[in-house]
Amino acid sequence: MTEHDWNIPEPAVLNRVRTRLEASATEATEDVLATIVSVEGNAYRRPGAKMLFAADGTHSGSLTPGCLEDALQKAAADVRDSGTIQYVTYDMMEDDDVWGLGIGCHGIIDVLLEPLTAQYQPAVDAFANREDIAVITVIDSETGVHSRGDRAYYDPVDDRFTIPAGGSDNWPEDALADPARKMATHGRSTVLTITDAGNELTVFIDGVAARPELVIFGSGHDVEPVTELAAKNEFHVTVVGFRGGIPLSERFPYADETYATSPGSIEDVISLHDRTYAVVMTHNFVDDLLTIETLLNSPVAYIGLMGPRERFEQLLGELSESGATVTASALDRVYTPIGLNLGGGSPYQIAHSIVAELLAVHNEQEPAHLQSHAGPIHGRVAAEILKEDS
Amino acid sequence: MTEHDWNIPEPAVLNRVRTRLEASATEATEDVLATIVSVEGNAYRRPGAKMLFAADGTHSGSLTPGCLEDALQKAAADVRDSGTIQYVTYDMMEDDDVWGLGIGCHGIIDVLLEPLTAQYQPAVDAFANREDIAVITVIDSETGVHSRGDRAYYDPVDDRFTIPAGGSDNWPEDALADPARKMATHGRSTVLTITDAGNELTVFIDGVAARPELVIFGSGHDVEPVTELAAKNEFHVTVVGFRGGIPLSERFPYADETYATSPGSIEDVISLHDRTYAVVMTHNFVDDLLTIETLLNSPVAYIGLMGPRERFEQLLGELSESGATVTASALDRVYTPIGLNLGGGSPYQIAHSIVAELLAVHNEQEPAHLQSHAGPIHGRVAAEILKEDS
């Protein structure tokens, strides 16, 4: 029987890719990695979504709600047999073109299917090291230098291109660096046509951003559903507890990392940076006070504090009495009471509201119903990112 | 080893109560049911939250994030030994009264602990039949007729009070019916003091509303995370699929009920009423069309449709051509694209956004950050409900 992990988070797909590469005795596995390159209209998944067709018959991830997976499996078998990358367009409009507009089973989806080989290692390493990376693949080339399937990687931190061993060189790095950096850091993917010495080169830039990092301070049992829902929503989850007892890693199986420390020694065990989302739920005033003080003096992107607003004001009063200064920009990053106002009161409902807020803040969305928004849901985003001032 | 299901949804606690009552050979189990009566300030859980201390040492549910559970366990043992209901106030301010305002471990919580007996059966029956009920318990009485722990149940549909066998009669039904109905239908709980023939009677009215009912139309694998997150957020989940294959109950273990039918025969298998939340994600235009037509002509509270707005407009065009009329009030209940704009694109992120919208609509909240709200989060709600015009 084949096993289909349709709904596992994208990081779990990449983790599976990593495991399969590691387990392979040779440079080339017999697995096939499929990635959505582009979609017409409002597809279920967005460009960059990945699905692994492993040689053992297991599937990880999904590109559609199920309508295309049989066809993809056949295409993957072709790619496995031929050993060459393929770029396939699935025009599901034709099946039912009376209806025109559609989703999932009625759209046009371009998919890149590639044999999973050591060539993909830079993407896997970046994932493991929690770094952003852009995976660049040639779709069409008039240059004579490149051909379909040629691959380059771009590391936005070092502003550096990596070409896999045996790969063709002479990439138009100047033209690619800026869009590759934007896609990598935003975790978006797009097709880009650039003119290189008078000839058009069309590439797919697949930005694979590091997971946003959630650090939860606290070890009450209410931490558990927050770790679960955050992990399922693709956050890298760290739990920092200030009390002994049962090891935190046992208590919070959804956490990627756990640390037991004292509230005054947080930065001895973890580093806080501008991609850190911090949730404070120790339910202890002194622990919260010391944690909040550390967080306000750090560059973290988000500080969510459980409890009423008045309690935070009292924390601020204590900080002020102790001579600490708190900047307005630090206060702007504080969300208390934590979460969106979804109205629920159970542990899962509270966790759902917290993770909904984390997603909205991370994706720079002001909470609203999607129905109040005109236009496509997640189309055009990559195009808008490219237009941003560098 | 004892087993603690801290974070299970409230319906799972009630289900456990039901199972324990069923399994008991006698009228009285040796289990103890604890219910939050009131909280001062912003507690983690709200009044009505329940926790079962079973005689076998297992615990289901939680009243705090862990700070009170040891004390509650001792109190439960007392109640088990004495066989009498107890009303206990936990003043955790005293532990740390420098800090004043607090949550969870620094508030004042009143808890009712009762021996679980057949007396509780009406609440359990209402839960099993998916009906609202108010559980009324005397806290203090000057009437001479009642004493602490006396119990009555109120059924808001039949406007009927039920007194457990052997219980005291002569309840001030006229004064209790309206608040009991409001608490039952809203699923809120409050303490109420009424004057009965010149004497004060203080009761705890614990409204246990039927779970909101979610019906998902579709059977793609993207339905799976929606069933999971909705069930964890306390919806009663039904999946209606229009395709054969692997039995839906196997594919969607989180669903309470599953039905395979045709899109023209939906109401042959389920009833649609004003507490039904409908999510349409068949990814098939004709199936969606027939489903939406049925839903628009039904009293369902919410119709969420996956896909772009334009697709819904095309569906409406088809309906119009076929001579169907669609009222403005029906259209007001349509949410498409479905979900809140949390910005995620993975199956879980899409499901998270859908369930966040379901919670917000069910709880009559306009999506926003809680931080933008002044005042307590979920305090005062019961008081506001009582003030509503009857």
UniProtKB/TrEMBL annotation, chains A, B:
Family annotation (InterPro entries): MoCofactor_Util/Proc, XdhC_CoxI, XdhC_Rossmann_dom
- XdhC Rossmann domain location is 214-358
Ranges for domain XdhC- CoxI? 32-91
- The superkingdom listed in its UniProt entry is Archaea
Q: Where is the signal peptide?
A: none
What protein name is recorded for this chain? XdhC family protein
Organism source for this protein? Answer: Natronocalculus amylovorans
